[in-house]
Amino acid sequence: MATQTAQPSAAPHQWRRSPTAYEMVEQHFAAHPDAYPQHTHPFDVSRSDIYYEDRWQPIFAEMRAKGPLHYVPESPFGPYWNVVQHKAIQHVESLPELYSSSWEHGGITILDRRTDSDFELPMFIAMDRPKHTGQRRTVAPAFTPGEMDRMEGDIRRRTRETLAALPRGEVFDWVDRVSIELTTQMLAILFGFPWEDRRLLTFWSDWAGDTELALAPELDDIRQGILYEMAAYFQQLWVQRSQQDPGPDLISMMIHSPAMNQMDPKEFMGNLVLLIVGGNDTSRNTMSGIVHGFDRFPDQRKLFEDDPSLIPNAVQECIRFQTPLSHMRRTATQDSELFGQHVAKGDKLVLWYLSANRDESVFPGADRIDITRENARRHLAFGYGIHRCVGARLAELQLRILLEEMHAMRMRVHVAGDVERVRANFVHGFRKLEVEITQF
Asked: What is the CATH number of the domain that holds 201?
């Protein structure tokens, strides 16, 4: 286990007493209710309330029934196209030169590029070839099958210890005690990050990945300050690793890579954001989604309890059902015809993975969990094509081990209190999930 010590400044430790990004946005709009943006178009699914209240499903179902592509001429995030069908998203992702991911064209989220700000964060998921290829190859060795085999024993030990420490006979927050704890432990190991400060990674992830912050420009300075603190902390780790022999952690891989060792500060910060948000939110929100989903569909929980051989497929099905990142965005680099629609150069296309994974033409009974579903692995929660999540194997491994250890302990988890979802259109997950443990 990586427990290297660093000498971070005192400032980052403010996370222990500071509001999260989501709390700050809520406080802002509670104090300024008239400032909250209006969503008038029926297919403007950029609105965060439909995800917070878990009522997005029929809106996307209506769009899918009417076609693969729908234009929203006006929204708080500017005009955009909704791409909502499974095959349509695969098609767009298979043409990365025509439909760009580059931050220079707008990046990977529904946010418009801020023309009044120079605070751009380049990252390899928001780059086109060839630069994307070189930077992705730098970090890919951390996620090979061999690395997964090497890490499995340690992940299993930490998962077992975390589950064994949970209270019995009382209600507790699964998000905090399990989902956040296990994912921050994993990120700390991947980065060789100081163990005692690992919860900083969750704090930074929330501030980096919350698109709602763009609707409250008064919070820009706070967000930028927090991300610069993150960069300063990691810069100290960079200096430390640069004086050491090459190691298996991601920072060491960057330092010793010709494709990444000359990054400017904002590109360094952008790639940190990518790896932290990607590593945190995918696993963290699916770990919560599994528990919530099994409680909602007890017949599937019973199948899991009776037949642990279903666990690998259950992992894929629960990732499909949860879809921890709702969308990715592409930008047209030239005029094109797409599914009978004229898409102009510069148009924003939002690929709603959340919708693709509920596409009934691919997943019959898509609004239910079915851990025996034969094609569960066809989900698009990790994306498709050259930008498919580089850490997908690790996320799958963590989730499989979690279910295996829950089964070994005969642990049944019941929702027993508050369920609070993230109020955001990008990250799709849970802020709180109060549960109680029994045995099966």
From this structure: 1.10.630.10
